[in-house]
Amino acid sequence: MRFGVNYTPSRGWFHHWLDFDLDDVRADLDSVAALGLDHIRVFPLWPLFQPNRTLIRPRAVEQLVQLVDAAGERGLDVNVDGLQGHLSSFDFVPSWTTTWHRRNLFTDPGVVDAQARLLTELATALADRPHFLGMTVGNEVNQFSGPPHPDPDRIRPGEAGSWLRRMLAACEEGAPGKAHLHASYDAAFHDGTHPFTPAHSARLGAMTAVHSWVFNGTAQRYGAGDIAERHAAYLVELSKAWAEDAARPVWLQEVGAPAPHVPPGRAAAFTEATVRHVLDCPGVWGVTWWCSHDVDRALADFPELEYGLGLLTNDREVKPAGEVFARLAREHRSAGASGPSGSTALPGSAALPEPPAPRRTALVLDAGDVEDAPGRAVCAPGGAFFEAWMRGASGGGRPAVVLAQRAGDAAHLAARGITEVVAVDEAA
User: Are 312 and 205 in a shared domain?
Assistant: First the structure.
């Protein structure tokens, strides 16, 4: 289990690429490493790296490599998001895709070719770096494909799948054998009309990424207590229902404590409860908190909740949530140092804490067709499936999730360690 952060530079936020200062980056990474974390996720801004469809700026690529090298010097592995894309309510798309040059980001052949070239070039530049984990295609790029985006690039699920396969292949071409993946915000699991589907998330790429944000209606409906604290674990388990490989890892790639939905005084407790619930889910690759450093309030027009999400302040001081996250990472690492069942690990061995036991009872989910899941609204906050799962989890159970089409598949259930299936209307 890996513990890391989404790296938000303390000086200039992601606009730091315009005035890249390696000393500032190193100081930020020192503060991350001091928390005892083991990886970061970083975000090149697409318009700055590829300002023209046929121009990828060598200097920008060189600066990204410098950042990855600086992280490696501090023992931090790095995942790189290739297409930014969308960050903290702002869209960053190149001018050659908008207004007079308006083209669909997912289906226009020239745009798709250019995106693939960028991903391949970034992956190639990093392929020989030992601390480079792999590429994520982009940060919640699926939000461009439908509402509530004000100017969506509309596509169908088949087109979304084709685009994802092309982008993942471009990453693999540049850095063969690395852990390349893609990431969607949770409309992929909650909105039956959304073209990016749970099957895309759970079947394409090296692992499944989930992004858990309780401002999606969870905190508004249920408050910041137990149900909100279980939301990340719920998404982890929900995503497994569509996986074809029972051993496919799930990465909780984004999770945070957004105020006022989580009151600042509860941020540390929310962090601890959220992570502990996720630690009870089998098959989790890691937790990557959003984010490393707060957004400087000198920067205007962010939604209020975005300013205070860091584990550290802009002055690189550790906040209460950061202290909790660092302690949980230490505890997990210490459990691994002794090996399973308290045995002594050999020097240099990869001892791990004992993994959580399989979740033996699975709640049956009927979301319709497996590929498109048109009925997935039942999985959203307030939906019948969401509430049934939360009742089971809050009542002391450890529910897994199985699709209705697989509820009678003995081999599938056995591979996941499931011994009992329960219908939603039978759930306690």
Answer: yes
Q: Are 356 and 276 in contact (CB under 8 A)?
A: no
Q: Tell whether the torsion through CA atoms of 107, 113, 115 and 116 is positive or negative.
A: positive
Task: Note the pLDDT tens digit of each residue in 352-364.
Answer: 578 899 999 999 9
User: 282 with 371, same domain?
Assistant: no
pTM for the model stands at 0.95
CA distance 376 to 229: 22
Residue 354: CB atoms within 10 Å: 11
> Do 258 and 379 reside in the same domain of the chain?
no
Which candidate, 190, 234, 229, 245, places its Cα nearest to that of 359? 234
| Strand order, beta sheet including 420-422 | 400-403, 361-365, 420-422
The reported pLDDT for the residue numbered 352 is 52
Q: Which residue, among 333, 231, 328, has the nearest Cα to 281 in the 3D structure?
A: 231
Closest CA to 67 of 146, 159, 118, 129: 129
Query: Tens digit of pLDDT for each residue in 275-329?
Result: 999 999 999 999 999 999 999 999 999 999 999 999 999 999 999 999 999 999 9
Q: Quote the number of domains for the chain.
A: 2
Per 3-state DSSP, the chain is made up of helix, strand and coil in percentages (nearest 5) of: 45, 15, 40
